Amino acid sequence: MPTNFSAGPVRVRVPATSANLGPGFDALGLALGLYDDLASEVTPGGVRVTVTGQGAGELPDDDRHLVVRAMRAAFDVLGAQPTGLVVECVNRIPQARGLGSSSAAIVAGVLLARALVTDGEHRLDAAAVLRLAAEIEGHPDNVAPCLLGGFTLAWSEPTGARAVSLAVADGVRPTVFVPAERGLTATARAALPATVPHGDAALTAGRAALLVHALTADPSLLVPATVDRLHQDYRAPGMPGTSALVNALRAAGVAAVVSGAGPTVLALSELPPSFRLGTDWEIWQLPIDVSGARVARGRLGHAERDPVAAGRKS
């Protein structure tokens, strides 16, 4: 079946995400109001990628770019590959900090490719987009909130990834503490043991269940609900500053966790006025994104091209 590509560019806005949220390892995620804006258009030949903001001068400007690789994977599913592509990326999500930059790139690529095919939504529905994005990423905990917005529960079945999005209760106030150093998910996963004690697994399962209730109905329970015994302690030696900050915040009564694979720290409750922090961290108060990824026609406007992290409070 021949594929017809849309005339003109399409654009997408994708939110940052924080996965795990403590005990919800590889399952729970939260969409945050910090965004990458991207646009793409089919061309007669060649691939050209421009990057502004986070990752500028570092990320590839050709087929090796993760957005393009995700687009190519989606085009394969959709039935054809365009001869050329132009992709413009305005990145505000920090790279390799545990805020879902790779998932945002993958979701953006899949959605851009789908929007560039005239009947793309018919061939690749929302459930298929999630399955493909999770397959590319390797797990669904970040791609789910990026796509759906809000607080998400994701899981995998033999047919692929699935997820649901839940509304977050008033009183949840995300703050991220972003360090200068970077972390790699592969390195963080390599620190995890092959097995954990049964008691630790049981405790963490119970706290993950409690966390769903705390985030959606009773934020007063966020501190006990964010206790984790599956991954954070094992990763702590590789991120001593992150671990120390999580412990200090929790000692002050704040529901703090490692964001994704780190090294960013996520706090889900208000910081006490007396809490003091050194100068090694950028502190951003971020709203919860409730819409997820959004696609539109046309090029990026002036506001979308601004590389400043709009919406965050320092």
Automatic annotation (TrEMBL):
UniProt KW Cell cycle keyword: no
Organism: Micromonospora cremea
Pathway involvement of the protein, from the record: Amino-acid biosynthesis; L-threonine biosynthesis; L-threonine from L-aspartate: step 4/5
Name assigned to this protein: Homoserine kinase
InterPro entries linked to this entry: GHMP_kinase_C_dom, GHMP_kinase_C_sf, GHMP_kinase_N_dom, GHMP_knse_ATP-bd_CS, Homoserine_kinase, Ribosomal_Su5_D2-typ_SF, Ribsml_uS5_D2-typ_fold_subgr
Any one GO BP annotation for this protein: threonine biosynthetic process
Family matches, as PROSITE patterns: GHMP_KINASES_ATP (PS00627)
Family: Belongs to the GHMP kinase family. Homoserine kinase subfamily.
Top enzyme category: transferase
Function: Catalyzes the ATP-dependent phosphorylation of L-homoserine to L-homoserine phosphate.
GO molecular function: ATP binding; homoserine kinase activity
Enzyme Commission designation: 2.7.1.39
